[in-house]
Hints:
Elements: H1 11-42, H2 56-59, E1 123-125, E2 131-133, H3 146-158, H4 163-173, H5 179-187, H6 191-207, E3 210-220, E4 223-231, E5 236-241, H7 246-253, E6 260-261, H8 264-272, H9 277-285, E7 290-291, H10 294-303, H11 315-330, E8 338-341, E9 351-354, H12 356-364, H13 371-396, H14 401-414, H15 421-432, H16 434-437, H17 439-442, H18 451-467, H19 473-492, H20 496-503, H21 515-524
Parallel strand pairs: 3-8, 8-9
Antiparallel strand pairs: 1-2, 3-4, 4-5, 6-7
Amino acid sequence: xxxxxxxxxxxxxxxxxxxxxxxxxxxxxxxxxxxxxxxxxxxxxxxxxxxxxxxxxxxxxxxxxxxxxxxxxxxxxxxxxxxxxxxxxxxxxxxxxxxxxxxxxxxxxxxxxxxxxxxxxxxxxxxxxxxxxxxxxxxxxxxxxxxxxxxxxxxxxxxxxxxxxxxxxxxxxxxxxxxxxxxxxxxxxxxxxxxxxxxxxxxxxxxxxxxxxxxxxxxxxxxxxxxxxxxxxxxxxxxxxxxxxxxxxxxxxxxxxxxxxxxxxxxxxxxxxxxxxxxxxxxxxxxxxxxxxxxxxxxxxxxxxxxxxxxxxxxxxxxxxxxxxxxxxxxxxxxxxxxxxxxxxxxxxxxxxxxxxxxxxxxxxxxxxxxxxxxxxxxxxxxxxxxxxxxxxxxxxxxxxxxxxxxxxxxxxxxxxxxxxxxxxxxxxxxxxxxxxxxxxxxxxxxxxxxxxxxxxxxxxxxxxxxxxxxxxxxxxxxxxxxxxxxxxxxxxxxxxxxxxxxxxxxxxxxxxxxxxxxxxxxxxxx
Length: 527
């Protein structure tokens, strides 16, 4: 509705009204453009063009300086292979020929065939009437051997093969197996793998200088949920839950611990989230500070009368988040770790850094309707690209003297007034995130983007597209754990096939140390 009297408005009120109207006009133009594209598509036209990624990160990489030259050879194949068999082939030479040695020719092949072993276990009856039976060899767990179980796990999790196709494949090899038995091989008795995956997360959060995080949609028990990724250059970990709230993220960061702790870090978190001082004082002055589980914590909030309060922000939610943060700190996790995210609100905890690729993407995908707007967008993008390239140079060679200059330059870029209202408001919003976007100036070891998280989480997206959702909690936990272990092995330079062989006691498989120990050792190495 128009104001009752425009002449009575002050200059500030008129400016606010003009800005609001300009935003509405831009929104109307955007709506018209979408409708025009939809009409064109329905009439058989091309519709709205697909905007490609900006390519800022690759475009700002330093050039190697190499122009041409000889192509690097891949090296000797024989040095990388273990020879399992040597066969000498005879040649039919005419009489009088002279022997000149042998010409080598390597052939790599794969031996796949069913191998059924009948163990005849001796049975003895002791004088006191008890039966003694010969134990099965190491690695035998059920009626399917360790090599078959390794093949099933590798094909399903690493090869992204579905259960019905695995059944068809194994039956084609001559293995008598059913779909139900395949599912059991995938989820039954995998507690040691789940524990190792949890240990990887704890080792990563306890030792990492930074972690990047991301999430994607997931289906569990026919309901929509979310899969959260946490990782860095040494490890990756996944968890599928029904929520993507900050409370859920803090629960995941506890890495399997179930307690709630009110300590100095918890109280500081509550104050940062604007929890009322009297409520913080109640929690701080009470003798009970540690609670074993959610039930004990909620009972404590009931006794203090906090659960009955109906104010904003919700005191129960903020106090619970603070107690979770206190638990994380009490267990030695995220001691000096920077969490790098794409600006999703649930990830904003502790020391927080933002992804520059996502920030620039907002400018890149901004809808423009006039030549002046497109020109303003391109000028701002060019400034951001050059600034991003200088941040990458600073990260490679940190110079404290350059920090102030880069901060001042950031202010100049994101304080610009281009005349394109939507772009100007976007720049102002990005300027508010200055400390998080420039976290690299204080911590040069952290990345400027979350590309690693997006690469890691693709395996979950692929599995969702191929196999759909999970139906049981055990299936969900195993899928998350094994995909995380696969990614962690790849980052540590370990073949997932060898890892499975070591854990399933496959005869002749190379030994693989515990992954949490490797993650801790890798994090302790200088960059």
